[in-house]
């Protein structure tokens, strides 16, 4: 239950009145989807979505990592040290060496990524972001452990993608910020303010 629901019930606010009405999308019924019709196909290299980390934040992370490593060493937690180092090496390797090209296919049934089918009723909304020089289509799923798909695409296909996806799921002009995004931005803003103060 949200705080807005309680305040609406008590009569202090009326949040539903100001809520924008979402456009009605076509109802998708898996039992009656008919023959599959391919709308768009492309091949692209999947990329891990990464952000440029400032040098000051990198140095701080290294110092914290060394202190935690020494603490684990003093506690004789060799397995934890091995796990942390393995995760660091794996994330670095994945960000520097992306997997080979994957095939993406949009059809009347949904989206297929390298043979894995996501039906239209599994998807909720979509928006576009950019990772360095790569255009990224982000699709939020209704349920599952990984609730967001990051899909590389060719910039020339963007109007077609918007046209096809907008007929089935909601289009967001801007990427919604998660709690992690907000925290990350606050940390970066703090470091930017400290850099400006040091320059003065």
Entry summary:
Helix content is 40%, strand content 23%.
Notes on the structure:
Strand 2 and strand 3 form a beta hairpin. This protein starts with a helix and ends with a helix. It has helices at residues 3-10, 15-18, 55-74, 78-96, 158-166, 179-199; strands spanning 38-44, 102-107, 110-113, 116-119, 123-131, 134-141, 148-153, 170-171. The protein has a four-stranded antiparallel sheet, covered by helices on one side. A four-stranded mixed sheet has the order 7-6-5-8, covered by helices on one side. It is 40% helix and 23% strand. The longest helix is centred in the C-terminal third of the chain and has 21 residues, at 179-199. It folds into two domains: 34-49 and 100-181, PH-domain like (Roll), CATH 2.30.29; 55-96. The relative contact order is 0.14. With 200 residues, the protein is an alpha+beta fold. The protein contains six helices and eight strands; from the N terminus they run H-H-E-H-H-E-E-E-E-E-E-H-E-H. The protein is elongated, with a radius of gyration of 22 Å.
């Amino acid at each position: 239950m949200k705080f807005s629901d309680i305040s609406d019930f008590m009569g202090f606010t009326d949040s539903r009145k100001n809520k924008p009405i979402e456009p009605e999308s076509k109802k998708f019924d898996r039992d009656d989807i008919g023959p599959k019709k391919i709308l768009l196909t492309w091949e692209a290299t999947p990329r891990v979505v990464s952000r440029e980390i400032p040098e000051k934040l990198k140095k701080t992370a290294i110092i914290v990592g060394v202190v935690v490593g020494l603490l684990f060493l003093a506690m004789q937690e060799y397995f934890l040290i091995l796990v942390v180092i393995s995760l660091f090496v794996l994330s670095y390797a994945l960000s520097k060496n992306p997997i080979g090209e994957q095939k993406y296919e949009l059809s009347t049934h949904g989206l297929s990524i390298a043979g894995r089918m996501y039906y239209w009723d599994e998807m909720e909304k979509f928006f576009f972001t950019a990772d360095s020089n790569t255009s990224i289509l982000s699709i939020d799923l209704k349920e599952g452990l990984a609730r967001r798909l990051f899909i590389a695409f060719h910039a020339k296909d963007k109007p077609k993608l918007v046209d096809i996806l907008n007929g089935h799921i909601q289009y967001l002009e801007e990427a919604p910020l998660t709690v992690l995004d907000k925290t990350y931005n606050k940390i970066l803003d703090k470091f930017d303010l400290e850099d400006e103060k040091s320059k003065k």
